[in-house]
Amino acid sequence: MTGNHTSELIDIGVNLTHRSFHADREEVIDRALAAGVSVQVLTGTSLRSSTEAARLAARYPGQLYATAGIHPHDAKGCDDTTIPRLRELAALPQVTAIGECGLDYNRDFSPRDVQRRWFEEQLGLAAETGLPLFLHEREAHADFAALLRQHRAYIGRAVVHCFTGTAYELHKYLDMGLYIGITGWICDERRGKHLRELVKRIPLERLMLETDAPFLTPRDLSPKPKDGRNEPAFLPHILQTVAACMGKSAEEVAEATTRTARTFFGI
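The structure assignment produced for this chain is given below.
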């Protein structure tokens, strides 16, 4: 996948509105394209970042898309205006999913009952708009799966972004018909060791790739970025690791995950 790019890649999770990209955002987008990452889906995690992501995506039609949602960390700031404003964003052509939404019991930046309430509100919005869901779950599997199950009949496609969970959790998500997003976490020989085994169990038609830039810079990247910042141009590196773990060619995994992402996001 280095040198001449025979297949394109789609990065389904990029925090391109993050302040670390303020100085060189255009160059980051150009580098991604040069690396074969033809499409980026920008993650919305609050009303502000969702609005910024939609605005930025509008400037790069066909190349950048955006999600609109409230991350569980930000759920405590939600009020009666939140869902109507997300609904307006969801109507924009470049906005292709509701999220990042879900539950995070690892950090508990928002009280758990508040997290659950606003996750449910966004599940309702996804059902209403027909848009897929971009999901976040950390140390909250039981409640997260239970809420999804309650709404499963009404919501369509959903991806558990940045999956780092257990075999049990993976199989539960796959049984529920969910898609799985894999990041550079798999490149970490310490924390990501279990993921290298688990990725073999994900059907190619349910797998998508993401950097979660500027976070989760692949640990084994060489040379390492001086500032430690992850960027979408590093997605081919993640692809190589995933393909090696699956015992498949990078070409096959690239084609499958790109096809899956295009269908999933309707792009």
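Interim note for the steering committee: The longest helix spans residues 112-129. The beta strands are 9-14, 37-42, 64-68, 95-104, 133-138, 158-160, 179-182, 207-209.
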